[in-house]
Amino acid sequence: MGINTPILKLSFLLLQLNNFIKNYNPERIVSYADRMWSNQDNAYIKLGFNFIGVTQPGYCYFKGSHRFNRFNFTKNKLINEGFDKNKTEHQIMLERGYNRIYNSGCLKYELIL
Fold first, then answer.
1. Residues near 57 by Cβ (< 8 Å), separated by ≥ 6?
2. What are the domain boundaries of the chain?
3. Using an 8 Å Cβ cutoff, are 103 and 35 in contact?
4. Rounded distance, CA 94 to CA 62, Å?
5. Largest pairwise CA distance in the chain
6. Contact, 99 vs 62, CB < 8 A?
């Protein structure tokens, strides 16, 4: 008989969640699941979270085979690095050889404690 991987993963997530609650004592927890990898009937629901809704599509940057979080390249950060303040973040990143890739948004969940 093999190990039931979904149950093992859910047990690990529950342990992590319990440790977080014990250490930080939050009133609520909000979390997001990428729609590319998740559906609404996922581990969050099994852990007691309520589905709140779907976020707007987001994006990240790619250069070659490397992916970069968009928060690394906010317009303020780019201006502080000496880039033209009259250009958009997207214009600057295209000039630097980065491509912007959009996702389909995230599923948003909340757990009230």
1. 102, 103, 104, 105
2. 5-112
3. yes
4. 10
5. 63
6. yes
Residue pair 13/47 in contact (Cβ under 8 Å)? The answer is: yes
Q: Could you tell me which residue, 113 or 4, shows the higher pLDDT?
A: 113
Q: Residue 28's beta-bridge partner residues? A: 112
Q: What is the DSSP string of the chain?
A: ----HHHHHHHHHHHHHHHHHHHH--SEEEEEEETTT--SSSHHHHTTPEEEEEPPP-EEEEETTEEEEGGGG-HHHHHHTT--TTS-HHHHHHHTT-EEEE---EEEEEEE-
- Render pLDDT for 50-76 as a digit per residue (tens, 0 to 9): 999 999 999 999 999 999 999 999 999
